[in-house]
Design the sequence.
């Protein structure tokens, strides 16, 4: 199996070594617990893929797209608006925002974790067990409107928006108008 660091080279942009190690631990734990041998074979989001007839979309490119988009947006805000934010939190949060999908789906089939807890509630559990700070758990919990938790920090808002845009880019493969999603 390819290492988490090789799968997600964006890890090198996290300056805080403990935070970087926690992100790696979250992914390593998720793969070990679910028996996933190759992260590149994990589907992006099976319910949407089934609804839209999109077969060849994968989690790793999506996570990397979200991370790149979130980092670019954060860097722009720091450069142009002198925003007070943590680039480490943005990158780490983006890298683990969908770590729970390994527990929620077995290939294209939903698991009890996905059915009963849903996305991204279990992700909070995964990142907390990896020793990641509450700010990262907040990014995971608030990155989607599938929870009632709204982003309370600029870092969480950035990851949420980057995820929305990355998901929209995937959906455009099946839709002419994103309002049909």
Sequence:
């Amino acid at each position: 199996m390819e290492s988490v660091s090789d799968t997600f080279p964006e890890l090198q942009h996290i300056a805080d070594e403990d935070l970087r190690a926690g992100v790696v631990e979250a992914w390593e734990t998720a793969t070990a617990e679910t028996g996933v041998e190759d992260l590149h074979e994990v589907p992006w989001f099976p319910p949407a893929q089934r609804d839209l007839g999109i077969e060849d979309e994968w989690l790793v490119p999506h996570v990397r797209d979200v991370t790149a988009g979130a980092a670019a947006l954060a860097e722009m805000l720091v450069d142009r608006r002198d925003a007070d934010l943590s680039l480490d939190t943005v990158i780490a949060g983006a890298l683990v925002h969908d770590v729970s999908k390994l527990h929620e789906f077995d290939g294209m089939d939903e698991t009890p974790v996905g059915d009963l807890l849903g996305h991204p509630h279990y992700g909070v559990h995964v990142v907390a067990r990896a020793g990641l700070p509450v700010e990262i758990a907040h990014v995971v919990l608030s990155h989607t409107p599938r929870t009632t938790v709204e982003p309370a920090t600029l870092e969480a808002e950035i990851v949420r928006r980057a995820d929305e845009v990355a998901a929209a880019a995937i959906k455009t493969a099946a839709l002419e108008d994103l309002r049909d999603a």
